[in-house]
Amino acid sequence: MGKVAVGAAVVCAAAVCAAAALVVRHRIKSSGKWARTLAILKEFEEKCGTPISKLKQVADAMTVEMHAGLASEGGSKLKMIISYVDNLPTGDEKGLFYALDLGGTNFRVLRVQLGGKESRVVKQEFEEVSIPPHLMTGSSDVGQDVVGELTKAMERVGLDMRVAALVNDTIGTLAGGRYNNPDVVAAVILGTGTNAAYVERAHAIPKWHGLLPKSGDMVINMEWGNFRSSHLPLTEYDQELDADSLNPGEQIFEKMISGMYLGEIVRRVLYKMAEEAEFFGDTVPPKLKIPFILRTPHMSAMHHDTSPDLKVVATKLKDILEISNTSLKMRKVIVELCDIVATRGARLSAAGIVGILKKLGRDIVKDGEKLKSVVALDGGLYEHYTKFRTCMENTLTELLGDEVSDNIVIEHSNDGSGIGATLLAACHSQYIEVEES
Ligand code: ADP
Ligand code: MG
Fold it and tell me: Which residues form the Hexokinase N-terminal domain (predicted)?
């Protein structure tokens, strides 16, 4: 009996020992995984680094590419498209105008009654619908004249209307911004995609061989989303995102800063953590494998989560990725990851803007002369992603210094592109008629 009891006790003790050993091993193993998670995060953060010295190089590279794109067609990754818009609104425009704004995510129709200098925008109505996802990625039928197709479609439904102008949203924003403020020199869109346009002196466009416009100005559509430079802090995740995209090798700047991609970059890093560090447990959550499932508005909501237990992060993970039971420290890693991706995008956007200001000679105070420059900003990312916007604006000040920054104003040109399009239709309709005849 005694022996059995002793024997049993020994067995018991051995079992407890084994269990204890298992717990310890498990802790060592999971702390190894946690260390791996942190290592992935740290490495990513380092590769995304945007110290001021680097941003200055990016800004300089932007200025250099602008010169190259203006010098000759195909001279740069920046197309620097001559828009033929050589007059911007003055405020005198009058009449009833519609604008159709086809964005990356939404389709908007605007109806604007312009009343001239005194009454300005008399009335403005607005409708918006989401673009169905299957149309967003469908193939495009190239070589068709958009204005011709739209005119035919309007005739088919019996609309007595004439298309007066076809403008891109960035130029629309520039025009809308200028209407409100004559000091507007450039416009930047940060939405699903990104682009910039600015007012160039016509004689500073070597590839322009036509007559110089009376105004002496020409609006340039930069198509800056296609900018790329060896100074851009590209990571393996950006390279993989690009390789898997519909347009590999193109729109590299856009893929680092715009709303279409920021959430997807976060997903890719999380996927790596899940796979290599078992961040979400011993299997990779199936939803996390789906490209573009984590949208930038979700990322933004997680990034702005101020609740002590980060419950917005928990809810988003559950609702979008079907991941539950995340610990607070895991959620903190995710917020940190969002911060790294948004900060890089915001700081690079600021560097791009400085590149434009440099090209215009407005990045310095000349002979004590205080030249005021206004940049019109629009787009859902700029409008709704507060931390992105704040970081971009702070970086601009950091890059330009206090004295110059005093003269640079970032203005939110709300729906500037739609109103701007109607304004351009108004101030260029005569010009367009001459073109058509
Ligand atoms: P578009 O003209 O291309 O349709 P918008 O200028 O309306 O786009 O911007 C829409 C984009 O803005 C979305 O695709 C998204 O990336 C971004 N966005 C919208 N809402 C938010 C938000 N709350 N936080 C962060 N980004 C947002
Ligand atoms: Mg848009």
Answer: 41-141, 142-179
Ligand 1 neighbours (beta carbon < 6 A): 103-106, 191-193, 259-260, 296-297, 300, 379-381, 384-385
Residue that wins the pLDDT comparison between 213 and 104: 213
72 Cβ partners below 8 Å, 6+ apart?
206, 207
Does the pLDDT value for residue 104 go beyond 90?
A: no
How many alpha carbons fall within 13 Å on the CB side of residue 51?
3
Domain extent, residue 252, equals: 48-86+166-436
The CATH number that applies at residue 215 is 3.40.367.20
Query: Considering the domain boundaries, does residue 282 fall inside one?
Result: yes
258 Cα nearest atom in ligand 1: 16
Q: Name the residue with higher pLDDT: 137 or 250.
A: 250
Number of the ligand closest to the Cα of 130: 1
Cβ proximity of 379 and 191 under 8 Å = yes
As given in the structure block, the two tokens for residue 132 are 């169905």
Å from CA of 329 to ligand 2 middle = 37
34 part of a folded domain: no
Q: Which of 335, 343, 256 shows the shortest CA–CA distance to 301?
A: 335
Nearest CA to ligand 1 atom 13: 192
Structural domain includes residue 277:
yes
- Closest ligand to Cα 259: 1
How many domains does the chain contain in total? Answer: 1
pLDDT digits (tens, 9 = 90+) for 163-201: 887 888 899 999 999 998 999 999 999 999 999 999 999
